[in-house]
Structures are given as C-alpha cells and as structure tokens.
Amino acid sequence: MIKGSNVTLGALSENVGSVIVSLGWGSPTGEGDADVSVLMLNADGKVRSDTDFYFYNNPVAADGSVQLLGKTPTADGNEDRISFDLTAVPSEVDRIVVAASRYEGARFGELEGVRLSLADGAGDDLLRFAIDEADSVSAIIFGELYRRGGEWKFRAVGQGYDAGLAGLATDFGVDIDDDAGAVEAQEGTAADDQGYRTPSTAAGEPSPPEALGAVPAPRTSDDDAEQKRPTARPRTAKKKVTLPKAAKKTLAENESWKGARLFPVSALKSDRDRETRATSVLLSVMAQVPEFGRRLTAAFGAPAGRMETFTEVTLPHGDTPRRPDGVIRVERAGKLWTALVETKTNGNSLKAEQVQAYMDIAARRGYESVITLSNDVALEGSPLVDVKIDGRRKHKVALWHLSWAEVAHQAQMLIRHEGVGNAAHAWLLQELLHYLQHENSGCHGFQNMGPAWVPVRNGIDEETLCHGDRRALEVVESWERLIRQVCLGLGGELGQKVLPVQRAKRGTDPGARRLRLADQLCRDGRLQAELRIEGTPGILAISADLRTGKLRTSIEIPAPEQGYPLSWAKRLVRRLAEAPADLHVETLVEGETGGPRGTLERLRPEPADMLPKDSGTRITGFRLSLLKGMGSSRGNAESGFIRSVDDAVHRFYTTVVVHLG
C-alpha cells in the first residue's frame, strides 16, 4: 500500500474477524527499538477513557478486542505484533489507531525498514505498508482500522509526530502524568477548516480518500512556537517482553524437518541421563534469567541477589562423599544463601536416605535449605520424605519440595503473561518449557494415581470397600495432588490465579480433612473438588463418580439483581451461543432442591423453559454442567483418569466458563 490509500479487509480474505498487525524495523547498530501503542477512538476522534490506550503497561483489553503480543527478534531488528478481534470491538468505537514511538531523544530516522503488515486469522499476509519519510519524528501513526458500511477497512496513514508517545496520546484525549502533554511544536503544520492541525502535504500528493477527519498532530506551545520543551515519557513500569501466542510460519519444507533445540532430548536413554540433563537445564536457566530464578527461590527464603548454580558437586559425608544433583548459591550484601538440590524424573520417587544425608551435610556446612524436585506434588501437612531433625544442632535446615509442574507453570506465567527483561530471556524460558513438555524429558508432573487406585475402584464397583480402608485415604491424597496440578496447568495458560477451594475451617488439620473425604469416598463412591479461577463469576466444581465412571464439571452463577427472569434466561442462552449443545442447564430456586433443567440444545429455541411454572418462585441462579467419561487406567495411558480430569476441566473452561466473564 501507499501512504493515504485504504482497502476493505473483507475484499482480501474471508477470515478477517480477527487480524494480526505487525510493526517492524531494523537498526544498523542492533540496539534501536520502539514501543507500539493502540488507541480506540469514538466518532469524535477521542478515547472513551484512558483504558482505551493500549501500550506495554496496558497490553490487553478486557473484552479481548486488543492484545499486544510483544516483540519477536528478526534478522535485522524487532517486530511487534498486535492481535485484534474485530468481532469484539465495542460498537461505539469508530476507528483504531496503530502507532509506535521512540524515546530519550531517539528518532525513527535512525531505524531502517520501518514497516507495517497485516495478516488474517489464518496467518496469511494481506497487506504491507513501508514508511520511508520518518527522519526527524519520534512517533509515527502507521495506520488505522475503521468501520465503513458494516465492514472494517484499513488506511495506510504514515504520519509522523515530533512529540513522541506523550504528545500522540494527549491529542487523542489520554491523560498523561508529569505534564507530558506540553510538547514541542512540529514545523510545517497547517490549520485546516475544522480547527485542528495536519502535516503539510507535499506538492502533488493525494489526500486520503474517504477521510474520517485528519489525524491530529501534536499541540504547539502557547508560549513560543520556537521555544521547544523536552518530551516527557509517560510514567510507567519497566517494559517486559513476552512471546507471542501464535507461532510464526515455519520455513521448513515439511514436518520431518525439526528445528534445532537449545536443550535436545532425543539422546536421553536412561533415568540417570534424564535427571542429570533436567537438573542442568533448569539450574542454568535459573542463573541466566533472574526473574525466573528469583520466582522459584523466593518462596524458600532465598534473598534477592546474584545467583550461581552448579551440578555434580562432591561434598564429604563420612566415608562416602555425596554428590547432590545441584547446588544453588545466592549472594546478597556479602552473605551467601545455599541450597542443595535432589532431582527425580519420570515416576521415580525420592529416597529418604538420600534426602536425610543432604540434610545432615547442609546442617554441618551451614547451608540454609535442601530442595527436592520431582513429578510428585507436595501436600500441606503431608511431607513426601520423612527426615529426622537433630534438635541439638543450632543451625536449622529447611526442607522444601518443588514439582516439575510448578517449574513449568512459573516459566509459562513469565513468557506468556508477565514478561521478562529481554527477548533472549524469553527465548531461554521458551526452550526450557519445550524441554519440560517433551515426552522424553521425564518432567511431566503428577502422572499416576498410585497402587491403591485400581483396588479402590474395584471395591467401589463391587461394593466391598469398607469404611476406614487405608487405601481410600491414599486415593484422596492422589486426587488432591492431581487437582493442584490441574490448577497449575490452567493458571499458566490463562495467566490468572487458579486455586483449589478447601471447605474447612481455618486451622483445621489437613490430615483430619482428608480422612473425612476418604470416608465420603467409601460411602458415596465420589471424589470432589472445587477451583476458584480469578475473574470468573463462580466456583468450578469437579466430581468424579467412580460408580458410574462419569466426570462432572459444573459452575453455579448467581441470578442478576435486576431485570426479569425471562430476560435472564434469554441473555444466558445468548452468552452460551458457542457452548456445547450437550451442556446441562439447571435453574436454581429458593427453598427447593432444583428447578427446571435441560440441555442447551433443547433450551436454545425456548429459553422460557428454564423458568419455574410457578411465577412466584424466586430464582437464585443457574447451574451449568458437562459430563464426560473417565479413563480406567492408572494414569499412564492416553485414556487414563488423570488425562480425563485435565481434559474435562480445560474443555469446560474454554467452552463454557470463558463466555460468562
């Protein structure tokens, strides 16, 4: 495209409900960069509020219409990608401005290959716009998406700003701190007949067709147009880098071409190989990515400081020296914090004798902690390894446990949602995550319901499981570990807190609570759990009925405080337009066990069927449920119970809960 031209997106592709806009540039020095920003404007050319201004400190719209995906390194510089869900853009938004800015006196003329490209929802490139005239400006409006006749169009703007991000934002109605709106004047502007300024147009250059009103240029100083004041950058936190969710198109000729990995797993043949490689990979990334290393060790009492990590360290211990899998050392103000690390992969369990030896070594040498790392998940009040603490020693050593699922969760939170300091750190975490998730790494998290699982299921099926059977308690503990891991996985994908709900009084002994759940399992044949997901209107409940072999996932949402019941029913059906047809919907009524119920498929044409026949009955809410068969193996097979629970929770959230926010 050329400057000022426009095009209807629907004429380029049928898949433009969502689009990806990429802004790119190169730098001769390899250090130049810029920040992208997006402004959603109403018909008056202003933001509705400051939340319509999206940049690196406000990267995602609550309705999902805008999401800044972060930077991706290119051969000659960086590329910033922005995802737009045009179907979610509010009707009062008339156009969307896409811009980028430099700071601290830098200008776009110092960059090369300044460009914009737009791809459809399938990732196919639809258009490209190169900006050649950007010598002295510190901000550029690359283009804008706007509505015309019920369709979305794109205009190539290419307008420069000399006042940077602050001037650009304030002219569209954003309130910037630190008097950043007072910016330098731009030479060569001319007032038009609508009272705002636009850059002078070169002789013979055509005006943009279908003009929506020229894009405002920065304000001039009231005191003296010749007296320029320095541009103030908006007061924000340090920028973070995250990786885009959508992978770039591969340059491989076919699927048999495998990309080179920093941490390969194909050569791993034994459990010892897997343990050694996993320990070295994890500890090296912890030392190189401070945000990640700090995230994992802060909960263990480590200070914030310079971290170094080591593997295969030999330490004296009686007649036979010991070699812990790893050592972590953190220096802060001349003081050292040290932790010994013992690692297990696959289904291998920690050995009490090994851990006890490391606890003794740490106590004698004045180390602070021993950290165990395995696929198992620790439970409150139920240690994975029993060790003896010598009370005569003044120096106390803390024993901590970390699961591989927790490691993957923290890596995913940083690179997908919260960001790290630079693109190299993000890439390192991505390589670590790829390694942990590979089928040959042995770092897959909790995978087995234990030896008591099959006997307990058979006992429930045959009605021979007796009250007080110790094996029922073992299954309850495995169930709790599974639920904690499901929370970690879902939370890492969403970037939100997902926590198990414990229906017990504060201070209740965890062991006593699990005994009650074991009694309930013997009596009812069901395992139950509840998850609290940040930002959702209710608690997600999971029930595994071992008698029927069915998993039920459900959520209860309260009735609105205002409006009419029929309007509530119609609104709920509309919100669940994309939900599965077999979703069960039950109306909850006051003082009764349940109200009308039916599948979404039956209720869609007749939402009134959700209402009680007695118009005087008060509706308190609605319960939405999905049923799924559960696997019968111990958890290692594809159809195993653990995989079934994980799939059921993810399906329910992505197809039902996500529409209720």
Quick description:
With 661 residues, the chain is an alpha+beta fold.
Protein architecture, described:
By secondary structure, this protein is α+β, with helices and mostly antiparallel strands. It is 24% helix and 25% strand. The protein contains 12 helices and 25 strands. A hairpin with a 3-residue loop joins strand 5 (66-73) and strand 6 (77-85). The model is unreliable at 178-238 and 633-639 (pLDDT under 50).
List the helices and strands and how they pair.
Elements: E1 6-8, E2 18-26, E3 35-41, E4 53-54, E5 66-73, E6 77-85, E7 95-101, E8 112-119, E9 125-130, E10 139-148, E11 151-161, H1 164-171, E12 189-191, E13 197-199, H2 271-288, H3 290-297, E14 306-311, E15 326-332, E16 335-343, H4 352-365, E17 369-374, E18 398-403, H5 404-418, H6 423-437, H7 453-462, H8 470-494, E19 498-500, H9 510-524, E20 526-533, E21 539-545, E22 550-558, H10 565-575, E23 584-589, E24 597-599, H11 600-603, E25 619-629, H12 641-655
Defining traits:
661 residues, alpha+beta, seven-stranded antiparallel sheet, six-stranded antiparallel sheet, 24% helix
